[in-house]
Amino acid sequence: MAFMQVNAGDYSSWTVLAILVPAFKRASRGGRATVGSGDLLLEFCRRMGAKAPLLRSILKSNYPAPDGPRSDIQGRAGSVDPLSLYGARAVLREAVRAGSDFLIGEQPSMSPAWTAGAVHVLAEARAISAERHLPWVGDREVLLALLASEGTTASALVTRSGVDRGEVLSEVGLLKSFQGKHPWAPAVDSLERVGLLRVNVVSRILVWPINAISRKIDGPSSGLLTTLEEEAGRQAVREGATEVQFEHVVLAAASITHQLALSEIPEPEELRNSQPILDGCGLSYADLIRRLVARAGSALSASAGESLTIRARPPVASPEVEMAFEQSRGRVAQGASYPEVLEQLFAMPQARSAISALTAD
Fold this sequence. Notes:
Layout: H1 2-5, H2 14-29, E1 34-35, H3 37-48, H4 53-61, H5 82-100, E2 113-114, H6 116-131, H7 139-148, H8 153-161, H9 165-173, H10 186-193, H11 201-206, H12 208-218, H13 222-239, E3 243-244, H14 246-262, H15 269-272, H16 275-280, H17 285-302, E4 316-317, H18 319-333, H19 338-347, H20 349-359
């Protein structure tokens, strides 16, 4: 059960993003202001209708699109635990970031908002997954939460179709959960891309030699530093920040090892050698997230009844963070190891302040 204990509960399987991102893109291209639980349910029906005839019936009954307003549930504050709500909002922000990368042409400053109903359903799915001791929020669990929800546009679509809710829930319950071996872990993808983890044969032949040469030129630790920078940007996205701050760099350093453990992938030796630095600062990713959620407290719970509006433009590194990474790249080019670079980063006053804030009770 040690594998389960490492999970903070806020990483979703890639199959969940395979539903969220297309629903977001459809809304964006359609010029719509919101993406709701009904959009998510219809996306599931499109993709899983071949395996579940009752889902296909829901889609047919609501095609091409249901008439009437697209208002969704006003979330019930306090009805979902804060950690699940945090995880839901974080993964929805990531879905917007992933979906925006594929939109062609000039992007608006704000994306379509996720309705309170969509946020509530994702939070319920996270709670279901935690109850079942899953190390990720599975696609089946999201679908079950959509079908079981009341007062949402998804619920209205089920009613409109005439399908018996109990029967479709039973049908979906028979479906296998997430098929992949590992949950979605962006840091793992990054470590593969920079040549620090094994990848498939084609990628290894085409990409690995290039990255191996780059590491010789830029320094053997350049791949890990690149992963740290990318993960810091991702943590800023998850928090809804406009800038990448030292707080996100600290979260990123702890998150990388967390994602590897969650995916049951052995750490590269140099990354493993940095663990004493994290331990010395009391940086466990699962604990950091729980502290963040606890500090958010009532403000996070109150947001359960609100839609989630997300900036379309990605966060940029603050001048201080950009300068710190520029200095780190210089040290890596001179042969400094990743643990040495991380130790120097954490010794900076801004990083020490971020660590103190993140680990405070």
